[in-house]
Amino acid sequence: MPDTTAAALPHQGETVTVSAYLATRLCQLDGHHVFGLPGDFSLSMLDEMLTVPGVEWVGCTNELNAAYAADAYARARRGVAAVLTTYGVGELSAMNGVAGSYAEDVPVVLVSGMPPSRARADGLLLHHTLADGDHDHFVRAYREVTAAGAVLRAATAVAEIDRMLLTAINECKPVYLGIPADVAVARVPAANLALPLRRSPSDPTSVQQFRDALTALLAQHPSLTVLAGPRVHRRRLEGELAALADLPGVRIATQAGAKAMLDEAHPASLGTYMGGMTRSEITRDAVDFAPLLVLAGTTLSDVLTGLFTHRFTPEDAVELGFETARIGASLFHGVRMEDAVRILHETAAERDFAPLPPLPPLTRPEVAEGPASDALTQAQLWAEIQQWMPEGVTAIADAGTALYGALGLHMSHDSDLLAQPIWSSIGYTLPATLGICLARPESRSLLFIGDGAAQLTVQELATILHRGHTPIIVLINNAGYTIERAIQSPKAAYQDITPWDWSALPSVLAPGVPSLTTTVRTRAELAEALVEARESTDRLVLIEAVLDPSDAPEMLVELGRGAARANGAPSAPTEPA
Questions:
Q1: Distance between CA atoms of 19 and 52, rounded to whole angstroms?
Q2: What is the pLDDT of residue 570?
């Protein structure tokens, strides 16, 4: 993971500024792009950071979008990503994005350019403060959405930067660094930069105890079923998961936040599991009634379990976390997930299960019957996308209609699906597409987003265009919040949004930058637009798909019914009184 080639290693006795030290450490952890907006308290810090070879500034249109973009960048690179803001107004704007990183285990580093140390100590009533002399309001606020935080002093800056970054990579959680303007340019020893930061190793005794207990457990069962979650992805363990799937007697399902982590055409793949919302009864039964179930990197949140409709008992399963493994009531502290998954593979291979009967192929969306000139439906939209979708894409699906349609797609072995099913902040994915384009320039990005979500963060389309990225964007125009309509009061005024001219937007945000925009209303128009999008590799493509506001993917309809029951709403959507 560390990249010591990002910058020349220091000589003994050499010094660097605090800002340059931080930038070099970020590069060593593969965080070469720094997202954010400048402010007067952060200008000197930025000037110093950009003197470090390998650091690239990515100026975004607002701090929230910068946090979303950094989150996606860190997910794709399996490394850290930095968001740099100014104090107060900037860091508060970014907080929603950082909270999402905390909820979904993403190591984002929020760097806040703060007023000088003396001004902080004297409680001066500066701009961007609450004018009460307390400069730590926002430091305290960030404690709620980060794993650790520090306001730097020159004397301890090196140790604190390293401590924060180690916390981020060990816990896969965001951290907070407040850097006063005077500290940003203070000089500190550079010697530590010759010692790359590495995740803490597993405890050898705990590892052996876990291996022994797992070996004994596997000997009692005829097969093994694994439910793999997004934390496996965070640790870059897809290869180990695939190796485990190659063994006889093993079946693997993935959570919605980890879809396509295992090739869905693999003979051992059960596809996506979401409790009662699982599309295949074979998949649901295989997980719920598994003789031996391993929860690898899972989060058992409402959406990921189909609103808690899972029928397995988590306490009876083997559980593999970032730093802890559990078998029954026995906790094995200090067992990193990398070692736990490796041991699971090794012990399952030694167990040599008997082969299981072949699984039927996973179902795919099929083109609905009816004339191709009829109004486009959700079923037709996703079926056409399934038939067309290229291999090797990184698909990104926003919370709502887009996500619950995309979850039904069959993904090729070299594709990936990025989503935010736990935090579910609509609008996340458009800035996330910027982060993905920078993190994976070799893979074309494919964004599915609703019109309501896009209106929140669409400014970042300008950054994507001006930087020359060429994603394909399928914008679902259903005139508002269909995910909420599926839950309650579908015709209420609050479900609607103002209409935009989506096809004109790229030329407004980036005049002179080539792009391709198309509005489709029928299956025939969609099929033609998708073919053209695939061939137009040198420009951004925006396909606006106009759909009935009441139409929704089947999975979203089921979610709406369940959410309505959970929220105490009427059994069927009704009009407001």
A1: 9
A2: 59
Q: How many other CB atoms are found less than 10 A from the CB of residue 419?
A: 27
- CA-nearest of 418, 427, 403 to 497 is 427
Residue 333: phi and psi, rounded to 5, are -75, 150
Around Cβ 78, how many Cβ atoms within 10 Å? 18
Contacts of 497 (CB under 8 A, 6+ apart): 451, 452, 455, 479, 480, 481
pLDDT at site 392: 87
Rounded to whole angstroms, the Cα distance separating 272 from 266 reads 13
Query: pTM score > 0.85 for this model?
Result: yes
What single DSSP character describes residue 395? E
Exposure string (b/e) for 361-388, b if CB count within 10 Å is 16 or more? ebeebeeeeeeeeeebbbbbbbbbbbee
What is the pLDDT, as a whole number, of residue 572? 43
Phi then psi for residue 575, to 5 deg, are -80, 150
What is the reported pLDDT for 576? Answer: 37
What is the identity of the amino acid at 489? S
Q: Specify burial of residue 314 (Cβ count, 10 A radius: 0-12, 13-18, 19+).
A: middle
The pair of structure tokens assigned to 241 is 């998961």
Distance between CA 104 and CA 47 in Å, rounded?
A: 32
Residue identified by tokens 């009692």 is 220
Q: What distance in Å separates the CA atoms of residue 367 and residue 6, rounded to the nearest whole number? A: 49
State how far the Cα of 406 lies from the Cα of 553, in Å rounded to an integer.
9
Instruction: Spell out, as residue ranges, where the chain has pLDDT lower than 70.
Output: 1-12, 367-370, 564, 566-577
- The DSSP bridge pattern shows strands 15-17 and 187-189 to be antiparallel
Residue by residue, what is the 3-state secondary structure of 518-552? Answer: EEECEHHHHHHHHHHHHHCCCCEEEEEEECCCCCC
**Cα–Cα distance for residue pair 299/286, rounded to 1 Å:** 19
pLDDT score recorded for residue 11: 60
